[in-house]
Amino acid sequence: MAKSYAKWGGIILLVLGVIGLFTALPLGLNSDLLEDLLHIVAGALLTYAGMRGTDAQAVSWSRIFGIIFLIVGVVGFLGPLKNLFGLLPSGLSTLDNIVHLAYGVLGWWAARGYKMA
């Protein structure tokens, strides 16, 4: 399960990051330079883990980004912290927060039950 999440979640992040660099993202998603670059980095790591990495690597990256996306999603709903401490000039929209929470929950869920040796 973690390899599928890493592969497809990574590809989606890469696509969103690249599109965000060159155009405005559709549906009201935020498209700040920093967020686009972070999506590209996260997407590349997840895609690698999902396509070429071991099961343990896919699980690790799924957990790491699951936690990060959960934190970003929760912080995004906290009014004054909405712009992530000044890192995002335009702040995160409600849709951004929902997407981050969904990615976080899916990443954590995909990595569940795997026992690291």
Describe this entry's structure for a reader.
The chain is mostly helical. The protein has one domain. It is built from 4 helices and no strands. The chain has helices at 2-22, 33-51, 55-76, 94-111. Helix 1 (2-22) crosses helix 3 (55-76). The radius of gyration is 14 Å and the shape is globular. The mean pLDDT is 83.
Please state the overall shape, judged from the principal axes of the Cα atoms. Answer: globular
How would a textbook summarize the main sheet? none
Give the topology string: H per helix, E per strand.
HHHH
Strand content: under 5%
Sequence stretches where pLDDT stays below 50 over 5 or more residues = none
Distance between the termini: 18 Å
The number of distinct β-strands equals 0
Mean pLDDT: 83
Work out the oligomeric state of the chains in this entry.
single chain
Tell me the number of structural domains.
Answer: 1
- Proportion of residues in helical segments: 55-70%
Number of helices: 4
The Rg value, from CA coordinates, equals 14 Å
